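[agent] plan:
  1. take the single chain provided in the ticket
  2. run structure prediction with default settings
  3. attach structure tokens to the ticket
  4. add a short note for the reviewer (M.T.)
[agent] executing step 1
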Amino acid sequence: MIIMIAAASENNALGKNNELVWHLPNDFKRFKNLTSGHHIIMGRKTFESFPKPLPNRTHIVISHQENYNPEGCIVVNSMEKALEKCPSNEAIFIIGGGEIYNLGLPFSDKIELTRVHHTFEADAFFPEIDPRDWELVNSEFQSKDDKHLFDYSYQTYVRK
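[agent] step 2 finished; step 3 output follows
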């Protein structure tokens, strides 16, 4: 199963200047719990936004830069090649950024989205979720608190 996992605002903002524009510690924990032990597919800029590779995950980086070869990563130049590097009988996570989500959407079976209930100025956006193609099967609202400045919801979509 191919799963896109993201946090996006009401206007589908993902981030600006290769950084998230909010801080939701519970969402980071959820991301870690869901993706640990799996292959994660990302773009080069997303990979480079991490201080170091994420533990207990196989990193597949899509890049068009020749000779790009970060230690411990599999580097390919297309979504198709990234998916070929993954086991067919396991969950595979597409983790961004915006361009990679657009490339991955046609291949995806499921979307695990943290919807941040706010709008932000951004330069990277999550693709529009077409209700003709996707069904919202679960939504769990989370109220803002002293560690989370914004209300948010964990939403699960499955392809129709």
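[agent] step 4 note for reviewer: The first helix runs from residue 25 to 35.
[agent] ticket updated
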